[in-house]
Amino acid sequence: MNANESEKVAVNRALTFANLRKVSSADAVYRLFGVPPGGQLREIGGAAAAILEHDRTACAALVAQAEVDPRRARARDGATVRTLLAKSRLAGTATMDAHGRVTLTLAAQTGVEAGYGFAVALLHDPSRAWGKALRRCAHEPCRKFFLSIASREGGPAPTYCTRVHQEASDKLAAVERSRAWRAIPSNREKAHAGDARRKKARRLAAKVSTATGTVSRQPRGDTTK
Ligand SMILES: [Zn+2]
Prior knowledge:
Blueprint: H1 3-19, H2 26-33, H3 46-68, H4 70-85, E1 90-96, E2 102-108, H5 112-124, H6 130-133, E3 134-136, E4 145-147, H7 163-183, H8 185-217
Antiparallel strand pairs: 1-2, 3-4
Helix pairs in contact: 1-3, 1-5, 3-4, 3-5, 4-5
This protein binds zinc ion (ZN).
């Protein structure tokens, strides 16, 4: 996994966290960010969930600011994010091979605040594309945060978190358009006229089909009136 991919994973984790409607289980959050050594809350069950729900609200507020304008969000929330980043500590693992060569591998300890702090820092970073790609789903009942990245085949970057929400929104818009159109009095008359015209056409069609029914029972050569 290259740096770009691991950053994307980190940002998506924070967005998943922010998108939770409410934290109902601490385990679900720990599964997302991991637990730093000794970092598990002493509280358990509902009490732990309530504390993590507090974190989730803070995370969602930071992400919402970054979505509006990453530059202004950095000016406003930069200090908060730096405090969160300070909670992440690097842990090193040293190994030595048979020839006595020593290698130190560093990894960031995970934890909820450090985890979403890192993601928001990436969203704030002007040298990275994450802030610019951050959107909220345009489907009004959803409004989830997501990374809007144009597909390799081209075309515009998506404005909906899923194709399902794109389709639902298109359907809603079509209903709304026809309702708005019918709300204009002159259009209502047009619509009535259209309905009447359609009704008349249906009546006529019914008549014709009965007529042809009659005609087919008449002897040949007598079909003209
Ligand atoms: Zn959506």
